[in-house]
Amino acid sequence: IGKAPPPRPGYPVLSDGKEVGVLCSGGVSPSLGCGIALAYVSAGSNVIGTPLNIVVRGSAYPAEVVRKPFV
């Protein structure tokens, strides 16, 4: 998620402005120095490398689908 405020469960996940999922877990990674999250997303939006947006406190921040573990 990069330099967004800490992601929290329940925040929506968007693709092309449409809601495609919801965060189920999130926080700041001390080793990466940025926000990380796990989310439930609809089929088609879950392909590795897919760009998404996470809405945190009313603002959209870029995110990307990555393989676990992401470190």
Question: What is shown here, in short?
Answer:
With 71 residues, the chain is mostly beta strands. It has strands spanning 12-15, 18-29, 34-41, 51-56, 59-64.
Element layout with pairings:
Layout: E1 12-15, E2 18-29, E3 34-41, E4 51-56, E5 59-64
Antiparallel strand pairs: 1-2, 1-4, 2-3, 4-5
Stretches with pLDDT under 50, minimum 5 residues: none
CATH class placement: Mainly Beta
Q: Find the count of extended strands (DSSP E, 2+ residues).
A: 5
Put simply, the count of helices is: 0
Distance between the termini: 13 Å
Quickly give the structural class: mainly beta
Query: What would you give as the CATH superfamily?
Result: Aminomethyltransferase beta-barrel domains
Measured on Cα atoms, how large is the radius of gyration? 11 Å
Strand content: over 45%
- What general form does the structure show? globular
What is the mean predicted local confidence, pLDDT?
A: 89
Domains, number = 1
Order of helices and strands: EEEEE
Give the strand order of the largest sheet, numbering strands 1, 2, ... along the chain.
Answer: 3-2-1-4-5
The percent of residues in helical segments reads under 10%
CATH topology: Elongation Factor Tu (Ef-tu), domain 3
CATH architecture descriptor text: Beta Barrel
Largest sheet: 5 strands, antiparallel
Oligomer: single chain
